[in-house]
Design a protein that fits this description.
Blueprint: H1 2-13, H2 25-34, E1 40-43, E2 45-46, E3 49-50, H3 52-60, E4 65-69, E5 86-88, H4 93-103
Parallel strand pairs: 1-4, 4-5
Antiparallel strand pairs: 2-3
């Protein structure tokens, strides 16, 4: 939870508007139903639950998705997420900025 809050603060410092953090899939789904994001950084594991299905839903709706994880890779990504960036924690500001610029087409 603290890592997600710290990441949100760092994103705001980089000039991004943050919809989260969401600590459960239900919270994440509520946030994106209230406001469609321009891009999504999803923790691959939200309280023991995979966020891959949510990522697939967002990607199908045209939202660029990246996963943050403590693992080297995320297994079983569907075809629509096969090229989604996977950021391994800890994530530097330079990496965040580069990946978000790419995701947002900048």
């Amino acid at each position: 939870m603290l890592i997600a809050m710290e990441l949100g603060e760092r994103l705001e410092e980089l000039g991004y508007e943050v919809l989260g953090p969401a600590h459960t899939l239900d919270q994440a789904e509520a946030a994106i139903s209230a406001q469609r994001p321009d891009a999504a950084l999803l923790d691959a594991n939200l309280n023991g639950v995979s966020s891959v299905a949510l990522g697939a839903k967002l990607a199908a709706d045209g939202v660029p998705v990246s996963f943050c994880t403590g693992y080297d890779a995320i297994k079983g990504l569907p075809e629509g997420l096969a090229k989604a960036p996977v950021l391994t924690k800890p994530i530097s500001d330079a990496t965040l900025s580069t990946v978000l610029t790419q995701m947002l087409g900048g």
